[in-house]
Amino acid sequence: MTIAPPATASIPAPPLGGPGLPQRRELVTEIPGPRSRELHARKLAAVPDGVGVSLPVYVEAAGGGVLRDVDGNTLIDFGSGIAVTGVGNSAPAVVEAVQQQVAAFTHTCFTITGYEGYVAVAEALNELTPGSFDKRTALFNSGAEAVENAIKIARHHTGKQAVVAFDHAYHGRTNLTMALTAKSMPYKSGFGPFAPEVYRAPLSYPYRDGGLSGAEAAANAITVLEKQIGAANLAALVIEPIQGEGGFIVPAPGFLAALLEWARANDVVFIADEVQTGFARTGAFFASEHEGIEPDLIVTAKGIAGGLPLSAVTGRADIMNSAHAGGLGGTYTGNPIACAAALATIESYRSEGLLERARELETVFRTELEALAAADPRIGDIRGRGAMLAIELVDPETGAPDAGLTARVIAASHAQGLVLLGCGTFGNVIRFLPPLTLSDELALDGLGVLRDALAAS
Question: Which domain holds residue 247?
Answer without folding.
Answer: 94-351
